[in-house]
Amino acid sequence: SSLYLERGEPEKALALSENSLKIELAAGKYAHAALSRINIASALSRLGRHKQALASIDEAIADSNRAGLESVHETLYQAQMEVADAAGDLPLALRAARKAIEATAKLVDQQTRRTITEMEARYQAAEQTRAIERLDQQQKIRELELARSQEENDRQAAQLARQNLWLWLVTVTTTALLLVSILMFVLWRASRGHAERMRWLADIDGL
Asked: Is the pLDDT of residue 159 over 70?
């Protein structure tokens, strides 16, 4: 319908917008219906039917209030200002202009608060992510320290095992040498005694 209005064909724009309005109201699409009412009001205003144009805007404002569609208030009051100005109702045009400004400020304020809330949510999410990462890093550090400690314990245990093995080898070797020494001493004593007995027997035989 906007295209028809730009082409200077308000009758076609009116017919199309009224048809769209019926479909949108039936479907519960009140935001779209509000825009269709604006197009209807613009077409009626171009046709000189100012009273009906203002009534269409009033209905759109009432519907948006019932549906809680504050986001379209700025557009509705701007349209009301234009239609009222075309109808020569300057007080209404002035009131509509003020309401349009108020709606714009309110919408900007809502958008600003929403943006701040989203930024705070992103910041909190980022902080939580960083906190998790710090915890993970600390856990990895503890695991690394534990692994190093275990490695040191294993190294010390291996060193102790080598020392024990060395001591055992020294003890075994010393014991073996001692046993060999004793055995050799015993054999020496035995051979010496045997030699003495042989000399004694030889002496007896000589007599």
From this structure: yes
Higher pLDDT, 202 or 38: 38
Contact at 8 Å (CB) between 72 and 30? no
pLDDT exceeds 70 at position 90: yes
pTM of the model: 0.50
Query: Would you say residue 161 has pLDDT above 80?
Result: yes
Find where tokens 């710090």 sit. Answer: 134
Task: Tell me how crowded residue 99 is: count the other CB atoms within 10 A of its CB.
Answer: 18
Report residue 1 as tokens.
């319908």
How far CA 43 is from CA of 20, 100, 131, 158, 171, in Å, comes to 14, 21, 60, 97, 116
Q: For the chain, what percent of residues have pLDDT higher than 90?
A: 6
**Integer Cα distance of 152 and 145 in angstroms:** 10
71-75, 183-187, 196-200: range with lowest mean pLDDT: 196-200
- Structure tokens given for 88: 């020569």
DSSP summary character for residue 100: H
Q: If you search the block for the tokens 């269709």, which residue do you land on?
A: 36
Q: DSSP H helical segments within 73-89, as ranges?
A: 73-87
User: Which of 3, 66, 12, 7 minimizes the C-alpha distance to 34?
Assistant: 66
Amino acid (1-letter code) at residue 76: L
Report in angstroms the alpha-carbon separations of 57 from 20, 79, 162: 16, 7, 98
Q: What is the SS3 string spanning 141-162?
A: HHHHHHHHHHHHHHHHHHHHHH
